[in-house]
Write a structure and sequence with these properties.
The chain has helices spanning about 20-30, 35-45, 50-55, 65-95, 145-150, 175-225, 230-255, 260-280, 285-320, and strands at about 105-110, 110-115, 160. With about 325 residues, it is mainly alpha-helical. The protein is globular.
């Protein structure tokens, strides 16, 4: 009876659901805009460790779920990093555009090939000569030396003498070799630094869920080692909350890049770590601070290993996609 079910609390929407009602329900369920998420954000902004302590003590109705908050922050952080990467690619592309040579004055003489600096750029010397050490094509085969031109991916800004012989490296081998070869190919196909940066960003965004998940897992393991008397679910909640807050801090730093903002966010996050450990495990302050120092060192070592693995996966992705 009435607009709400007395058993489950569902609102009586009838058999026909309007599109706006469906959208509002999806947004409300995802972002918990009815009160949980705003109340959680106020708590984490001004009361370090309070949300985690309340949740672990069973008062969960008024606050967002740590797992849902973590997944939401992972999604938002990935979007922010993607936009920041695009902005960085554009800035780098503009910064290097003035260094791109659009045309060259090439003179072929009996001694070799001279490439002159374009008149539109401030002259350094005429002609500008540069002799590469690992790729020196012969004059007779200059137009037909793709292997020699491939490692440089730029106009031949050097003097080539007729007595020099062809000496070129073969195709790149290994993951790193093929990855850098693929990035060089991207840079030479008209995209320049922008395409290279976009390729790296795309590969990195694919690794973010794996990187953060491994950090959450390893952090939970170190917490279980240091506070072995507590239940595994407590360690999981602590790790999810602290990494969700770390993703939130990273998102804010990406949106407002500044040394001062970075310092404030770092101090804010570390306060959450210290007070969160205190509220979650109920240890004395000396025990809490000792555990904080130990977990920070162990987490840093784990992060270093995970980042090395992530970079390997990034270069492997680039090598498979763009390498030869």
């Amino acid at each position: 009876m009435g607009p709400w079910c007395h058993a489950c609390g569902q609102r009586d929407l009838g058999t026909r659901v309007e599109l706006k009602e469906l959208v509002a329900e999806v947004v409300g369920e995802t972002f918990e805009i009815e009160g949980r998420l705003p109340r959680t954000l106020v708590s984490i902004a001004f009361r370090p460790g309070h949300w985690l302590g309340e949740f672990l003590q069973g008062r969960r109705k008024s606050y967002a779920s740590p797992l849902r908050f973590y997944l939401l922050m992972l999604f938002v952080c990935a979007i922010a990093l993607g936009f920041a990467g695009q902005r960085l690619a554009t800035e780098l592309d503009h910064a290097t555009a003035k260094l791109t040579w659009q045309d060259q004055d090439v003179r072929i003489t009996a001694e070799g090939v001279n490439v002159l600096r374009p008149a539109s750029l401030p002259p350094l010397r005429e002609p500008l000569a540069y002799e590469p050490t690992d790729c020196r094509p012969d004059l007779d085969v200059l137009p037909y030396a793709p292997l020699c031109e491939q490692p440089w991916r730029e106009p031949m800004l050097y003097t080539l003498y007729a007595h020099e012989s062809l000496s070129c490296d073969g195709p790149a081998e290994g993951v790193l070799g093929r990855a850098f070869d693929g990035l060089g190919t991207l840079a030479s196909e008209g995209g320049g630094v922008r395409r290279v940066t976009q390729a790296l960003i795309k590969s990195w965004l694919q690794q973010i869920p794996l990187v953060v998940s491994l950090l959450v897992l390893t952090h939970g393991v170190w917490l279980a080692v240091l506070w072995f008397r507590h239940h595994l679910s407590t360690h999981a909640m602590v790790s999810l909350v602290l990494h969700g807050l770390g993703l939130l801090a990273l998102t804010l730093l990406v949106l407002w890049p500044s040394p001062f903002v970075a310092l404030v966010l770092f101090a804010w996050h570390q306060l959450h770590v210290v007070f969160g450990l205190k509220r979650a495990y109920g240890s004395s302050w000396p025990r809490t601070l000792l555990g904080y120092a130990a977990t920070s060192v162990l987490w840093g070592l784990s992060a270093l290993v995970v980042l090395v693995l992530a970079w390997f996966l990034v270069f492997n992705e680039v090598a498979q996609t763009y390498g030869h």
